[in-house]
Amino acid sequence: MPSQVKSRLNRATTLLAVVAVGALAYMFMPSCSLLVDADDTLCFAIADAKDGVVDWPDEEYLEPDYHNDCGITENHECDHCDLNPWFLSQDDRDYIEGFGLAQGHGWDALGRADVMTVNAVTKEIDTPLGRTYNAYANIVYANPQGIDLDRSRALDDFEYYDSFLKWAPAYVSQKTYRINGNCNRDCETVFSGNCVIARTVSGPFRNDYTDLYQTFFYDLDAVWRASTIVHEVRHARDQISHDACACPNESACDLRWSSNGANTYELMWLAAYFYTPEDHPFITPARRARASALFTHRRVALFCETPRWQLGDFRDINQIPEWYVEQVACSEDPSNPHYCLILAN
Amino acid sequence: MTRKRHAQTSLLAAALLCALVQIDCQTSEQPYSVTGGYTFARDFEGERRVLRIEPSSEQLAACIETSLPAGTRASWKKTLLAPTMHRALLDLLFDETRLPSYQADLDAVEESGTLICSPRPSEPDFCYLPEVVVTGDVPKVFAKVAGTSPPRRVQSPLRFGLQRHVALSSDGRALIDAFLDAHEACWNPDD
Question: What is the torsional sign of CA A283, A101, A116, A146?
Answer without folding.
Answer: positive
